[in-house]
Amino acid sequence: MARGSSQSQSSTSASGSRPGVVAPRGSAAAAAGLKISPTVVLVMSLCFIGFVTALHVFGKLYRAKTGAGP
């Protein structure tokens, strides 16, 4: 066989249906669940980071006010 024909046969058999091999079905857009835009994810992430930072600062201020710890 020629080199080109063996490649075409291997690509044909790889893309064809084989028993026991399950092809992936669709993309994340087809999946069920919460659908939110990347902008919303970015805003929610920044809000979470801000909230954790605020808790850290308030904890430092509370600890300094009470005189507990180093």
Helix share, percent: 55-70%
Residue share in β-strands? under 5%
Taking the alpha carbons of the first and last residues, their distance comes to 79 Å
Q: Please report the number of helical segments.
A: 2
Shape: elongated
Oligomer: single chain
- Tell me the structural class: mainly alpha
The average pLDDT value, as a whole number, equals 78
What is the number of strand segments? 0
Question: Tell me about the biggest sheet?
Answer: none
Which residues sit in consecutive blocks of at least 5 with pLDDT less than 50? none
Order of H and E elements: HH
Gyration radius from CA atoms, angstroms = 28 Å
GO cellular component, one term: Sec61 translocon complex
InterPro entries: Sec61-beta/Sbh, SecG/Sec61-beta/Sbh
Region (Disordered): 1-24
Organism: Corchorus olitorius
Describe the structure.
Pfam families: Sec61_beta. With 70 residues, the chain is mostly helical. It is built from 2 helices and no strands. The chain has a domain of 35 residues. It is elongated, with a radius of gyration of 28 Å. The chain starts with a helix and ends with a helix.
Features:
70 residues; mainly alpha; 2 helices
Itemize the secondary structure elements and their pairings.
Layout: H1 3-15, H2 38-66
